[in-house]
Batch of 3 targets.
Target 1
Amino acid sequence: MNDLPKQPAVPDPANEFASDNSPIDPRDFRNALGTYATGVTIITAAAPDGKPYGLTCNSFASVSLNPPLVLWSLVVYSSSLTVFQNASHFTVNVLGASQQALANKFAKSSDDKFSGVDWTPGLGNAPVLAESVANFQCRSVNRYYGGDHVIFLGAVEAYTYSAKEPLLFARGTFGRFLTDDEGKKSP
């Protein structure tokens, strides 16, 4: 008798990352990932003709402090993938709790995402959005393909930040961070 937990068969390395070969249900997996609260960012870059591009993203993470590196990922069928792949720089604009409408605006396909948005050109002309909690101006260092996404690695060349409250995202909805004092109920 063996009390060890049963292990699934070792996957065939040639097909391990092929779509439709996973026993994991994608919708349920997305629900599980949604339990991990993230910040909300708008990633921006400029096309060769100078036109600004941007999209809402919560797949942003730090990679290294020395050298300062960050990453984010974009689905391979995004209409702006080519712009980000060819841009010398991108900016990660971390949104504040009051910028939910801006997050929604940049989450939708539109040719006029920057209409009415206060921004300035940053390094490589990548837009730096006004009123963001923080921004990280990055030189594109590398790209890696992972499943249905492209992972962008950036070297941070400039950044700013403030004490404003960040916008959070979990379980498919926006939220905010409560400090210990705010989360306590009065007797």
Target 2
Amino acid sequence: MEFLEHFSIKETVTAFMVLFAVIDILGSVPVIVSLRQKFGKIESEKAAVVAGLLMISFLFIGDKILKLIGVDVNSFAIAGAFVIFIIAIEMILGIEIHKSNKAQAASIVPIAFPLIAGAGTLTTTLSLRAEYHDINIICGIILNTILVYLVLRIAPWIERKMGEGSLQVLQKVFGIILLAISIKLFTANFAQLFQNYVHF
């Protein structure tokens, strides 16, 4: 029950918003629609569950991997901040630096990975551990998994209702939010690293 004592609505909402911005499931609607047209049917439940499990698994296993190679969470969080920064720049400027939307199969690949639980999302998930308690990050992941499932189910309807222009505006707004979060993540963890390694 000690695990639940750290539950915070504020941290959960923040973790949810950070992951929501990185996953950018609404911005991926056109890609999802094109994949649906190409493969006929996308197994929404399987894609969402696999993506959620990947994020939760990396939240715990990722830390052990870091310890194995001798990297602390603060350093990894700073690296994650750079990744989030690049993703934010992509979203704001509408450029493509590292994403690849080419697909060979539906559902788990490329929907669950790398479209939803890609390198940026997994890096962000682990980076959040430097700032928030695990229970709140897990809740944020679960909420995003539910949202991903819903969007996968109604992707064609969302595209028709919102239109490409509205989706692009939404993408840029979340890009700016993500940019601010990446700067906060960098400064907080850099200050911690500075305090740990520099002694006066």
Target 3
Amino acid sequence: MSSKNKYNPQPESSRSTYILGGLAVLVIAVLVIGGVIWQSNRSKPRNDGYGGVQNSEVQVALQDDGVVLLGRPDAATTVDLFEDPMCPYCAELENKNGQELAQAIDDGKVAVRYHVLNFLDQLSASGDYSTRAVAASECVAETGDAVAYSAFHAALFSPSNQPKENGSSDHTNEELAQIAGDAGASDEAVQCITSGAKVEQARTHAEAGRQALAASGATGTPAVVKDGTVIDALSNENWVSQL
């Protein structure tokens, strides 16, 4: 084939092609960078640095059905929060709004009824991690130390402590007790967790929580319910301030 029959793009055509190609790459880069920034901001903790509840007026109580009530007696409103200690989306909610919620509790704007469930037991390495974490939560709540309970609750869902679904390991009772002790829980609570004293009770309470979740109309965890209405807390990052 002679050289005159080969395709030789004109300089103008080539230049336009490169300009358009460069613009396309630039647009894609902007979209990717924007997406990364958006995702980073979306997962960034709100009120970062506040920590758990600090107000001595905040009380914690383990109720007969296993629900843990955390709040000031004069709290303006009360919400129900359903979660499983193995649930990654529950950890996402805690990481995003936990500190913001703690300040709202301190300020008397809201009290929280924690329903800690165990439906992810089967995905834990031990086969009963969620139940034992429920028991640990109850051990700490029963001591009446609201500050320690808030800190322990946050620690349970922290990236460094939450076991992975279908992972190769989770925490023993002794390790859960250590996490509680590090959060400020009393020796009584630590011993309660270590001995597994509340495990069977926790299993019963978790089932009651599962039934309450189903009755609320929520389809899974985490679920936040206020006055019978399910709040889409994962999608609405402002849900705490809007309570």
